[in-house]
Amino acid sequence: MNMPWFKHRGPTLELQQLQRRDQLAAPTALGLCPLQTQRMVVLDLETSGLDMRRDIVLSIGAVVIDQGGIQLGQQFESTLLRPAQKVNESVLIHGIAPSELEAGEDPAEALLDLMEFVGDSPILAFHAGFDQRMLTRALRKTLGYKLRHPFIDIAELAPMLCPDNRPRQNGLDDWCAHFGLHVLQRHHASADALATAELALILFSKAHRQGLDSLNAINQRLANWRKRQQAQFM
């Protein structure tokens, strides 16, 4: 039997979806939990383009870092139902076939599944600002949900921890090559999330040697580093 639908704060959701949304865990603030015991979710989104006001999320990949390692038994992957999406260059580079978008998962279900997977954990991403804004917009439009989870940007963490030993470019491929990581696949949400997680573990080891033993300490150092970077261009 079909569930009743309810109009609430914009999107139309089934009662069960509303209940799931309202039961999502509130995020935990970045604290002093040691990196070795901190659960983190590494996220990557594939989108229809780079316009954060108009483009949409096509697929999601995520993996968990916990107990100082990547938990391969805890991975998330979903291609969203986007039957009207035109096959442009951005879609082709991700290798997402139109048939995959036409057979994808209902966006509301996929996003609920993702946030249940994330739980109260902080989120890591490469160029996290983009992923954070795209996910925030998708959650608001699809679920009427406000994303409050803290994000750590691995694309900022890498040059901060390696100021004198860094590649010329600041892309994920550049840092993976710099540290000798063998990435078998790129421009795929799950593969990129895994590559980012492997890079994050290397950087956390460097952070530990620099006296940074928690995400809170890393975030504070990043805030100061960001201010210095901005001051150089003023």
Order of helices and strands: EEHEEEHHHEHEHHHH
DSSP helix count? 9
Strand order of the largest sheet: 5-4-3-6-7
Give start-end ranges of low-pLDDT stretches.
Answer: none
Average residue-wise pLDDT: 90
Overall shape: globular
Biggest sheet layout: 5 strands, mixed
Helix content: 40-55%
The share of residues in extended strands comes to 15-25%
Distance between the termini: 62 Å
Tell me the radius of gyration: 18 Å
**How many strand units?**
7
Structural class designation: alpha/beta
In short:
With 234 residues, the protein is α/β, with parallel strands linked by helices. It is built from 9 helices and 7 strands, in the order E-E-H-E-E-E-H-H-H-E-H-E-H-H-H-H.
Write the layout of secondary structure elements.
Blueprint: E1 5-7, E2 12-14, H1 15-22, E3 40-47, E4 57-66, E5 69-79, H2 89-93, H3 98-102, H4 107-118, E6 123-125, H5 128-143, E7 151-153, H6 154-161, H7 172-178, H8 189-209, H9 215-232
Parallel strand pairs: 3-6, 6-7
Antiparallel strand pairs: 1-2, 3-4, 4-5
Helix pairs in contact: 4-5, 6-8
